[in-house]
Design brief:
This protein is α+β, with helices and mostly antiparallel strands. It has two helices and six strands. The protein has a two-stranded parallel ribbon with strand order 1-4. Strands 2-3 form a two-stranded antiparallel ribbon. Strands 5-6 form a two-stranded antiparallel sheet.
């Protein structure tokens, strides 16, 4: 059984592990422990592929790596560092960038910075200032372990009511 390190720390960036098994075609490897978050929703999952060579035990004449990097700020520095790292050895191409987004804030509601993506940038501000809020924890979101205690659901309803009242009050002030 693989020890899923992301259950304890979903922002872990380094870990050591042993390969315990591989698929017959070597397209998949299985580790004794992992911090690589599985893909299945809006939580911060890790994506990447490695491929290369023509046969085992032969020095590869070609190789390819595809990675997805999650950032919470400007990507320029990371893009420059990637280009510098592969300069003269490989080609780096950016396929997709979903920009970091600063979401709305309301008095009395705690905020935080997280390293996962959302569809909110695709709306282009069409619905005004965006908010991203809900019960539960990102540490188990969209996994088999996902659960939301009833207490958090009740609290969420109260938070949504406070949000509506605050936003209504703000809108009323700006309209007058």
């Amino acid at each position: 059984m693989t020890d899923r390190l992301y259950y304890n720390d979903s922002y872990l960036t380094e870990f050591r592990a042993r390969v315990i098994e591989s698929s017959p075609d070597l397209r998949r490897i299985y580790l004794d422990r992992t911090a690589f978050y599985p893909t299945s929703g809006g939580q911060p999952f890790d994506i990447g592929t490695l491929s290369g060579g023509r046969a085992p035990n032969i020095i590869a004449d070609q190789a390819r790596a595809e990675i997805m990097i999650r950032l919470v700020g400007d990507s320029g520095g990371t893009r420059d560092a990637m280009a510098k790292a592969v300069a003269g050895c490989a080609e780096a191409r950016e396929v997709l960038e979903i920009p970091a987004v600063r979401l709305g804030r309301l008095d009395g509601l705690e905020t935080t910075v997280v390293a996962y993506t959302t569809d909110i940038p695709a709306f282009g501000g069409a619905w005004g200032q965006p908010f991203l809020i809900g019960p539960g924890t990102i540490h188990v979101a969209h996994t088999l372990e996902e659960r939301v205690p009833k207490r958090q659901l009740v609290e969420a309803v109260e938070i949504y009511q406070r949000m509506v009242k605050q936003l209504w009050k703000q809108e009323s002030k700006s309209a007058s």
